[in-house]
Amino acid sequence: MEVKPVMTRKLRRRPNDPVPIPEKRRKPPPAQLNYLLDEKEIEGDLKIISRGKLLGPIRKPALLPTSGVSSLGPSLPENSLPDTRIEDGKLLYERRWYHRGQPVYVEGKDLPRFAAVISAIGTEAIWVKKTLDSSKVRIYISQLSRGKVTIKRRAS
């Protein structure tokens, strides 16, 4: 004779039953850091930084290669790339915020100046619609940060 365990289904908790304690999930360990510079370059940079603190500001810091977005703030030289980025569907360019539907002038090294309206702002580019022929032009953030294309506000 086989004895099978009786399965009971609990549809709801009884008023006097203890509350079951859920198992806690552990957080994953922090990811390991991947250094882009080798030890000698890091030591050299630390020496330069420590000398600068002892002797005062002697020279401007070297321009680090970035993707057009400056995260270093005031430590970059004055003539470096402008702070250009997209946040919350808005474009920050030359210390001004631009949003969808805003009238602008677009000018580039290979483009004549034309009036346009910002029609869309993506993650890496913005789309502007020319007011003359309603054609759309895509402008990458890298073009804006390098100065290949510039935009300026215009009265609506």
UniProtKB/TrEMBL annotation:
Compartment(s): Nucleus
Q: Where is this region: Disordered?
A: 1-30, 64-84
Q: Which intervals carry biased composition (Polar residues)?
A: 67-82
Does Protein biosynthesis appear among the keywords? no
Q: Which GO terms describe its biological process?
A: regulation of gene expression
Q: What is its main location?
A: nucleus
InterPro entries to which the protein is assigned, alphabetical: Sds3
One cellular component (GO) term of this entry:
nucleoplasm
Keyword Transcription among UniProt keywords: yes
Q: Which UniProt keywords apply?
A: Nucleus, Repressor, Transcription, Transcription regulation
Extract the PANTHER family matched here.
BREAST CANCER METASTASIS-SUPPRESSOR 1
Record protein name field:
Sin3 histone deacetylase corepressor complex component SDS3
Tell me what organism the protein belongs to.
Diploptera punctata
